[in-house]
Sequence to fold (335 residues):
Amino acid sequence: MRPDQNDTLLRVDNLQLHFRTSRGVVQAVDGVSFELRRNEAMVILGESGCGKTSLARALLRLLPRNVERFSGSITLNGQELMGLSDEEFRQQVRWLKISFVPQAAMNALNPVLKVGDQVAEPLMEHLRLGRQEALRRAAEAFTSVGVPADFLHRYAFELSGGMRQRVAIAMALVTNPDLIVLDEPTSALDVLTQANIMNVLKRIKQEYTTSYILITHDIGTSSELADRVATMYAGQIVELNDAAHFFSRPYHPYAQGLMASVPRLRQKQDPVFIPGQPPSLLQPPAGCRFAARCPARFEPCDQEPPLYEPGARQQVKCWLYAEERQPVPLYATPT
Ligand SMILES: Nc1ncnc2c1ncn2[C@@H]1O[C@H](COP(=O)(O)OP(=O)(O)OP(=O)(O)O)[C@@H](O)[C@H]1O
Fold:
């Protein structure tokens, strides 16, 4: 039976992840809140360095040693995860309930272990399955991501990049987790293989009740999978929207700039590029963090904007929407 679509799986509230460095504290994730329903795919978009990977690592609690602050609330199926000790989190949550396909996962496979054994490992370690049963389940996971089952007995170097990436996805899928977080799953692959991997993810989404968080720079490919889109800028989510609205008429000036920067086949005008750079996360500006680059900047932007809710399940962190309920178009619509 398909799950209730209104069923909230994950709720993140005021999540902060700050790092200590010799130059000061980097506020990589700074007050992020969102909800994800069961079987929903949320894409996280944003420029390099805006905190996407740090957000993923915070959800998986894969934290470096130089954490200055890790706070807020993360509930999964109603259970507060922040209250768990690291050991409890490792035993009860990571891989079993939330699994991860890290950046360049295909290069992270162990070169001296057969890929089948690597995919079977989380089952033996976390579910205490015997090797034969774990390998049987690994073979099933291989089939669902389009890797022939006899590849179980191969080593990573014997597989193409696309096949290795599928193996990394099989590893995340094999424990049948509630949520899979994928960080740039197609970034190092050629376009055809990228499309194949996206098709695998779409098919898995139809067949399983898994939810996804997909981190990407690739707006085009992500549009095929996304139900929701979160746009991150300088450590914060500046827009949360459902995919259909986001890809046709985004709200936030930064989100509009990102969309206008995507080259289109029959577009007459040049794609837009957003001048300037994101601010340093060592001392982000006090007001709107996008203000210095924003074509719609006006007086209130010196103050931090609140999150406005122009529609159901829509949030935008921009003063333009203090009264406005419709997206205020700032760039020419591509024709
Ligand atoms: N362990 C760390 N110590 C100090 N600073 C860090 C650490 N990890 C990340 N950062 C900093 O945190 C900020 C956010 O980085 P993050 O990798 O999360 O961004 P991103 O949006 O995922 O970028 P990309 O798309 O390039 O992967 C950056 O300024 C980065 O330099």
The two ends are 42 Å apart (CA to CA). The first strand starts at residue 8 and ends at 21.
